[in-house]
């Protein structure tokens, strides 16, 4: 479903060139849980940005459902991210003036009563059924991240990209968040790509890939 | 709405409701600025409209008035009169000096004293004459017996004649004794009648004695009178020698001539401008003229909000007043028009309100020193209609006041559509003479030029406010945007397009500015309505509260500039937004 071929991302700094991603090829099948681990600066987040269309590669190709990103316009890529992908970042990026439920609805593509009901269902699933009207600043950090997960899932994305979703959480809370993503995959929602530096969080992954110096290898 | 917000948490209402604390201050600041613009702009427009209305009578007439100002016009004749007056003063001094009336008077009043010095001689003559009369009277008394004696003597003389006749008769006829006998008989009787007795002889003797004495007294008196006559002759010579003062008539004639020149000079001041009569007559013959009237115009001082102004009063005759009212479709709603021979005035109700007077009230220089209308005039009529008018009587003005007589002008009322043609004709008639025209284009130009300065200041202030507000609100907008950077970063990352975000921010800003604009304009209308009722109307000032030029066009630059500046800077940042840099930020 999602594939990368000889993917490379270079950063030019004066005369020197840094290879953030260096000739990486991989595929993420539908319904799979792929983990990307590696030390800081290894290029795992960059790889995720390339896969999700947030960045254009220097070389190589990324394709989703057989369509090469190179053949998709910027607007098309944005639409793709909006409609088919879900994102969870290290920070929750919740909008402070919106309630929990409304923050979840921010991720919705269609907005109707059914979607609202689904958002409520998602919040109940992540354990925040009683805090739908709370504002982000009234929630704990773990709760906020769970809301972010619900926001990433509200439009039932084909792929959920999670970039260090547990970095700012304690072990238990981090585990809960990963489990939510894993449950989405199990429930047939779609694929999950999790970037983390903590291998312990990827115990349920179908595949864990190691990034080092921009290159990819199996763990 | 709650459900809609739930379904679309990024709706504008949601944004505004959840960000009241940030939005309302901006709305408030903008609304207050717009309120300020509405109020100042409306007051300025009001000043202009009130000025137009105050001088609106010029829209249908042409005023022709002496060209020169009073100072310029009066400088020469007054200087001339002062010179003449100085000459009169010199002549008055001459009248008081040698050869003048004063010295003549002094010489004349000295004459009686000099004459009185001769009185003793006269008095002595009087005494002596009285004595003479006394002795003469006495002598006349003394002569009574003598007169009797004289009668007797005269009888004796006639007896002698009779005796002589007897002698002649006896001589002629000595034989006839009858004449002798007759004579003797008659002579005996007669002698008895004329021969005095002893008493008579005594009285006669006494009378002779007295007469002698009185004659002596009379002689002495006559001698004294002779002396007195000599004295009187001497006195007469003295009186004749008294100097007669020279006649002051030459000096008086000079004085009269000088006074005549002064009178003539002063007369030139109080006469109307030369050529006025001809101008009136010629103007009446201009084709397309409705009517022409002499005008002893004057002014009342009124407040026009942008400053005080002189409201023109027309000094017309009675028919002229009626014609002018009819021309403007005005009418007297209270009281009546002024009488020709009275210090009365009829004014439009707005002007009356402006001056805080009504029928029976007083206006004029004695009430308000800024009024050109002299003394005190009683308001006898209130005029209502589309055009503001003030009417005063021509006759009273020209008969009682120098300036109003000298500076008479005329009003020329063109027929509709003939304004320019009549204007040109009147201009041609005036030529280089000491008159000038005041018509609507001129008056309007003057008003506009006066307001133009205020307009410039106002526009500058609006520009300043707009710039400051654009900077302040733009800064606030940017600060607010910075606070929402995570929001925009997330939305960009999860698939909201940059232009979509720009549009969203644009709508947010537009809503704020439109709300502020509506609130500011609404507040402006409310404030102006209150001000209109509480101040403008009572003072006869005009205000168009719903002046769309002011409410719409003049206030729009502020929200527009604020929107464009605030939105522009945010849009520029949004379009350059890199969501990854926000995602990777660790703050």
Strand order of the largest sheet of chain A: 6-7-8-3-9-10
- Give the class of chain A from helix and strand content and strand pairing: alpha/beta
Mean pLDDT of chain B: 86
The percentage helix of chain A is 25-40%
The overall average pLDDT of chain A, rounded, is: 91
Tell me the radius of gyration of chain B.
59 Å
Strand content of chain A: 25-35%
Query: Into how many domains do the coordinates of chain A divide?
Result: 1
Shape of chain B: rod-shaped
Q: Please name the CATH topology of chain A.
A: Rossmann fold
Short description:
The complex is a heterodimer of chains A (219) and B (587). Chain A has helices at 44-52, 74-84, 100-105, 113-125, 141-153, 171-186, and strands at residues 2-13, 16-28, 33-37, 59-64, 67-68, 85-88, 159-163, 191-196, 207-212, 215-218. Chain A has 219 residues and is of the alpha/beta class.
């Amino acid at each position: 479903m999602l594939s990368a071929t000889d993917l490379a991302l270079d950063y030019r700094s004066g005369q020197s060139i840094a290879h953030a991603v260096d000739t990486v090829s991989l595929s993420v099948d539908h319904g799979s849980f792929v983990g990307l681990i590696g030390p800081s600066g290894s290029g795992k987040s960059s790889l995720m940005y390339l896969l999700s269309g947030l960045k254009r590669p220097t070389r190589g190709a990324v394709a989703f459902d057989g369509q090469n990103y190179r053949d998709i316009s910027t607007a098309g890529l944005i639409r793709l991210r909006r409609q088919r992908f879900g994102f969870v970042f290290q920070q929750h990026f919740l909008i402070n003036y919106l309630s929990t439920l409304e923050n979840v609805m921010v991720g919705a593509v269609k907005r109707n009563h059914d979607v609202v009901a689904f958002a409520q269902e998602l919040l109940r699933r992540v354990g925040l059924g009683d805090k739908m009207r709370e504002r982000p600043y009234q929630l704990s950090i773990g709760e906020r991240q769970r809301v972010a997960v619900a926001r990433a899932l509200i439009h039932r994305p084909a792929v959920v990209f999670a970039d260090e979703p547990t970095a700012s959480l304690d072990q238990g809370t981090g585990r809960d968040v990963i489990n939510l993503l894993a449950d989405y995959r199990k429930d047939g929602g779609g694929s999950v790509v999790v970037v983390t530096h903590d291998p312990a969080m990827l115990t349920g992954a179908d595949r864990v890939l190691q990034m080092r110096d921009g290159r990819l290898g199996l763990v | 709405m709650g459900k809609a917000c739930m379904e679309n948490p990024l709706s504008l209402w949601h944004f505004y409701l959840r960000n009241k604390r940030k939005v309302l201050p901006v709305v408030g600041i903008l609304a207050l600025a717009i309120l300020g613009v509405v109020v100042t702009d409306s007051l300025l427009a009001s000043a202009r409209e009130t000025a137009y209305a105050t001088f609106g009578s010029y829209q249908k007439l042409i005023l022709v008035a002496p060209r020169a100002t009073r100072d310029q016009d009066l400088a020469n004749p007054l200087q001339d009169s002062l010179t003449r007056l100085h000459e009169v003063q010199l002549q008055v001094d001459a009248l008081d000096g040698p050869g003048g009336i004063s010295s003549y008077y002094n010489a004349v009043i000295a004459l009686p004293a000099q004459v009185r010095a001769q009185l003793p001689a006269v008095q002595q003559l009087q005494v002596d004459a009285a004595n003479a009369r006394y002795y003469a009277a006495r002598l006349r008394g003394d002569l009574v017996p003598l007169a009797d004696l004289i009668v007797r003597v005269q009888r004796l003389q006639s007896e002698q004649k009779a005796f002589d006749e007897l002698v002649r008769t006896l001589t002629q006829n000595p034989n006839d004794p009858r004449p002798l006998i007759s004579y003797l008989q008659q002579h005996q009787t007669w002698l008895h009648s004329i021969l005095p007795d002893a008493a008579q002889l005594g009285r006669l003797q006494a009378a002779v004695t007295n007469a002698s004495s009185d004659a002596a007294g009379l002689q002495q008196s006559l001698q004294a009178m002779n002396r007195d006559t000599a004295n009187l002759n001497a006195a007469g010579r003295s009186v004749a020698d008294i100097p007669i003062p020279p006649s002051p008539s030459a000096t008086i004639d000079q004085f009269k001539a000088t006074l005549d020149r002064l009178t003539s000079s002063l007369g030139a001041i109080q006469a109307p401008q030369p050529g006025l009569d001809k101008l009136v007559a010629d103007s009446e013959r201009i084709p397309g003229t409705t009517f022409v009237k002499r005008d002893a115009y004057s002014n009342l001082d009124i407040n026009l909000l942008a400053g005080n102004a002189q409201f023109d009063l027309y000094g017309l005759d009675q028919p002229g007043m009626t014609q002018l009212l009819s021309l403007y479709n005005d009418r007297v709603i209270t009281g009546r028009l002024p009488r020709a021979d009275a210090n009365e005035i009829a004014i439009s109700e707005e002007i009356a309100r402006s001056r805080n007077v009504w029928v029976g009230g007083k206006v004029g220089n004695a009430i308000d020193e800024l009024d050109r209308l002299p003394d005190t005039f009683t308001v006898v009529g209130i005029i209502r209609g589309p055009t503001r008018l003030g009417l005063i009587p021509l006759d009273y003005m020209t008969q009682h006041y120098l300036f109003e007589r000298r500076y008479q002008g005329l009003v020329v009322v063109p027929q509709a559509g003939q304004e320019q043609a009549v204007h040109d004709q009147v201009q041609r008639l005036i030529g280089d003479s000491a008159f000038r025209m005041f018509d609507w284009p001129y008056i309007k130009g003057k008003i506009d030029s006066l307001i133009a300065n205020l307009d410039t200041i106002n526009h500058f202030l609006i520009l300043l406010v707009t710039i400051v507000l654009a900077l302040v609100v733009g800064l606030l907008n940017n600060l607010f945007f910075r606070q929402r950077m995570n929001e925009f970063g997330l939305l960009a990352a999860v698939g909201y397009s940059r232009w979509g975000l720009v549009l969203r921010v644009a709508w947010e800003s537009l809503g704020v500015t439109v709300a502020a604009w509506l609130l500011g304009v609404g507040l402006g209308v409310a404030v102006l309505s209150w001000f209109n009722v509480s101040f403008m109307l009572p003072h006869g000032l005009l205000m168009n509260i719903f002046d769309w030029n002011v409410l719409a066009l003049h206030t729009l630059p502020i929200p527009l500039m604020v929107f464009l500046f605030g939105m522009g800077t945010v849009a520029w940042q949004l379009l350059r937004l890199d969501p990854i840099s926000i995602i990777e930020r660790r703050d």
